Amino acid sequence: xxxxxxxxxxxxxxxxxxxxxxxxxxxxxxxxxxxxxxxxxxxxxxxxxxxxxxxxxxxxxxxxxxxxxxxxxxxxxxxxxxxxxxxxxxxxxxxxxxxxxxxxxxxxxxxxxxxxxxxxxxxxxxxxxxxxxxxxxxxxxxxxxxxxxxxxxxxxxxxxxxxxxxxxxxxxxxxxxxxxxxxxxxxxxxxxxxxxxxxxxxxxxxxxxxxxxxxxxxxxxxxxxxxxxxxxxxxxxxxxxxxxxxxxxxxxxxxxxxxxxxxxxxxxxxxxxxxxxxxxxxxxxxxxxxxxxxxxxxxxxxxxxxxxxxxxxxxxxxxxxxxxxxxxxxxxxxxxxxxxxxxxxxxxxxxxxxxxxxxxxxxxxxxxxxxx
Length: 372
Fold this sequence. Notes:
two-stranded antiparallel sheet; Farnesyl Diphosphate Synthase; mainly alpha
């Protein structure tokens, strides 16, 4: 999130409240781990590292949506909203632990991923067995611990609320968790499919974007905040109309940054998505344009090199240049702008009061116009 908009997370006790809740979970996990065995203490350290680097974007969308639907800072329900925001951050940590294993990512936010850290420690300690298997196993368990903590924090958030409000918020949270898991599966499936239909590749890519990222990153947090304020179904529908296009634009920006971003800013090596064979809208558009123009060399390069785990810097540069040359980068930028305009038009249609409206507009801009 750009620095100018980071203040949105600092206002009205938001960041302090979220960070305090997360710190309580880390402290509780560390105490439990140490009580079981000193050998378990690295688990708490790893969870703490993952939680330390987040932008708190999802928690901010939740909080300011709550404010937009009548929430008052300092009242009894604010604690519940902050805890719900912490639950979202813990869920994101769980998803990232698992996602990094499935993608075999080497870095996260500029630091080695958890499975790589534990694999390296396995080697350094001269332990028996396969170091990679050990690292992957630990990271999966870390994701499970963060998921357990997320559910605990959401349960505490909803405990003191009126039953209809708690039930509505819980349904949003449960749907989000299920959708992300299914979206992750669809992402894995997409990477196994043959390169024989660019239109179908884009359909699958958009499906993954919406299910795995857009709803979980933006739509569900906005809807959750409104639900915690007791908003009616019409208001929740308005939140969805804002959140889905904005969330899709958010993820499409992420896809562009994965190829064109500065590693010192994104915290990930350039070209990781290309090495992992991510079936993004960007790659699908490039393949479609190369096919339409009869550029068989470009088609062969895209289908043969996207997904090559051994792709070196020159190979990444070649593919990146091809994505630009086919017009795919420009087309995805245009799609982001279309989705952005759709989301902002929907924000205006909701008639949200100040200061929540301005805060949500600024958050929306930060989500789309980012460099990391």
